[in-house]
Write the structure tokens for this entry.
Amino acid sequence: MKKIAIIGGGISGLCVLHYLKQHLGDGAHITLFEREATTGGTIRSFQKDSCLFEWGPNGFLDNQPATLQLIEELGLRDQLIEADNKANRRYIQIKEKLYPVPSGFPSFIQTPLIPLKDKWTLVKGLFKKNVSTDNSIYNYISQRFSPLIAETLIDPFISGISAGDIKRLHMASAFPKFKRKGFKKPCMLSFKGGMGTITEALAQRYKKYIQTDSEILSIPSDNNITILATPAYVAAQIIGNMNPALREALDQISYAPIAVAGLVFKKDAFKRIPDGFGYLIPSKEKKDVLGVLIESNVFSGRAGKDEIMLRVMLGGAHHPGIINDGPEQILSRVTREIDTVYGLFSNPVESFVKLWPKAIPQYEMNYPRLRQSIAQESQKTPGLHLCANYLDGISFNDCINNAKIIACQST
């Protein structure tokens, strides 16, 4: 009987296990090893009283069929919730002031975020062709539109997605589907009980095939197939001297650190009630706060009826030193930020902090070379497969889709 080891119990590893069991049933001996006491990786939902705090991603887009199919297979369709339409309004903070992100042509014409000459440049750039995506995001946007568009509009959204530096991120690698036509605006979804709902459902369904508190330090020699569903730096350690070239390529994948802070306030604590989705901050503002999400505006049930929950992201590629700060320092800094923008009469009634020293892999300018090297070298190790968000997309949806592909290749 074929013996398969999956190392890593985050969303990638759990989904590989799910798809392998679909393909092989009891026709193979499959075990997932997770070094922590629980599975889920960065996807964790923490409930305390009336508050639901997400350690990692708080939702996903409905534009990936594999994700929606997986939810159906797990019987979780009735647990889905949509982001509130009232949260569609988004802001960018410039010099402590919030400016609405243009949502249509009239608001685009009127916005003070962009000077008139750059607005015209933006319109012309939509029709510009032959701008190479084999470039940094900053250079691509600057060449197609203008440096100001890159710094004011694109930079804060990239920081919100990947916590990265647009002058170092590779355009084609970070956005491989950029050229797709017929774009339909996706809807943001989550679960009533938080994103941990899906990882918990997978863990419960396949618990007899999962071994937690099991750290694997090298490729198991008694397996036909080993699937490394770990971060690149962990995969490099496990591979060790078995394939030095592959280990070296994996070690060069950089990660951005993130601190996630959740703060719950009584509604009457604010001088100005936070509205909309929240706001993002361009890196040129030199702040270690990347953005503030009004979590309770986006998804219902995240705080009590008379409460507001905010989720604040700090650090990223521009401010890696955030990992050296303690929870109290972070909470103090975040409270000052919220007070500056909205005004506060009182402190939060509840707070949460989670530090991720290596949170999000960065698809930087050397990524195409590294990706090719990883693909070539991994093929030289029979039975070895890699499946994680440092390959072919960092999003929740990407992890599920890639896990489905890897499972097919492993059977």
